[in-house]
Specification:
alpha/beta, 7-stranded mixed β-sheet, 11 helices, about 35% helix
């Protein structure tokens, strides 16, 4: 494997492939093209490390080892066996094989995982003349993915998913993944330098992701990645990249970001998360119900993830809240409002059609991101 010329894949939730592709282009990555499930690009191992640190909306960064059509288990075995695993894996590597299958002849994930692991071991036996593989060393996360009979072998450089920024210790009643929150910030009408308020801020994820963007804070700055334990990891170069990201973080740039909520317990968690994100004193949080919220001063953007039917037993309460959101917007002429909801009745309850809509997924929930300018 040439660590300076790799085919890489930044995986993304369905519907976010274009957002992630745009991020990669802004980071200066080459040959970027979106595809189902993410965006592919070419680069070095240090590029993969930079993307792990900097990407806001992607789930993982994978090294694509090879791809081939496989319709039988024998074809899959031979495909995996041809890979130069002896160059990639140290003698004590812990080989963790995950898998996924869709629209293929081979649909048993467990069997595909087992065959992949067996093929790797058989290759290592042949090339190294070893018969014992203790797997007591560092973890090498390998995935075999089959889609429409095309098998793809990848090595996961991220480890834990990239939404695990490290600042959130408890999710609250209705958690919003950090990567989706960053996507909503990106797709909203807000831009750094403008005022931003979340009137249903909960535990503060949207506010923190906006503050990260405004302060040029790399989302993965304080966490580590699986690739840092690989035997071929270029530690010195990547330490320089992390140091540069630390120098780029400018918390003094954060201004005009605030949130409110009716639940004091959620606000306590939000304050804790803000502090754990290194943003103490940078985000204003107030215990105010949306119905009574009145902001003065500069115009701005309301950005929120309000409760919707799947999360509250009383759907009528949700729709009443949507009506109050319209009143909130009317009380603040010149502001815009952006909200995500899975409730198909949102616009009717709000009392106005959105100026712009985009389909997204919050976990398995199909949602719409609605923008009222």
């Amino acid at each position: 494997m040439n660590i300076n010329n790799l085919t890489l894949l930044a995986t993304a939730a369905f519907g976010l492939e274009g957002v992630v592709a745009a991020e990669l282009k802004r980071l200066g990555m080459k040959d970027v093209r979106g595809e189902i499930g993410g965006a592919r690009f070419t680069g070095s191992l240090t590029d993969a490390f930079l993307c792990n640190l900097r990407l806001r909306c992607a789930d993982r960064v994978l090294i694509i080892l090879d791809e081939r059509e496989c319709r039988t288990f024998e074809e899959l075995f031979q495909f995996v066996r041809t890979q130069p695993w002896e160059q990639l894996l140290p003698p004590d590597a812990k080989i963790n094989v995950s898998g996924k299958c869709a629209r293929s002849q081979l649909m048993s994930i467990r069997d595909c995982q087992a065959i992949t692991k067996k093929a790797i071991i058989e290759r290592l036996k042949e090339k190294t003349r070893r018969t014992v593989f203790p797997e007591t060393g560092e973890v090498y996360p390998i995935e075999i993915a089959l889609h429409s009979d095309m098998a793809r072998l990848t090595l996961d450089t991220s480890g834990e998913a990239l939404n695990r920024r490290g600042y959130r210790t408890w999710n609250g009643e209705a958690p919003l993944r950090e990567t989706l929150a960053a996507t909503l910030v990106e797709l909203s009408t807000w831009r750094p330098g403008m005022r931003l308020h979340d009137p249903c801020c909960g535990t503060g994820t949207l506010l923190i992701e906006a503050a990260f963007r405004q302060s040029h804070r790399a989302p993965g700055l304080t966490r580590h990645f699986a690739m840092e334990r690989f035997g071929f990891f270029p530690a010195e170069e990547c330490e320089d990249i992390r140091r540069t990201c630390q120098e780029d973080f400018m918390p003094e740039r954060i201004s005009g970001i605030s949130g409110s909520d009716i639940d004091p317990a959620a606000l306590d968690l939000a304050a804790r998360h803000v502090k754990q994100a290194g943003l103490a004193g940078k985000i204003e949080l107030t215990n105010v119900p949306l119905q009574l919220l009145q902001l003065t001063g500069e115009l701005g953007v309301f950005l929120c993830n309000p409760p919707y039917g799947e999360r509250l037993s009383d759907r009528n309460s949700c729709q009443k809240l949507y009506r109050e959101m319209h009143k909130l917007l009317q009380r603040h002429p010149g502001w815009s409002l952006c909200a995500i909801s899975s409730d198909p009745m949102f616009e009717r309850a709000f009392g106005k059609k959105a100026d712009k809509k985009r389909r997204l997924y919050n976990g398995r929930l199909e949602c719409e991101f609605l923008i009222y300018k």
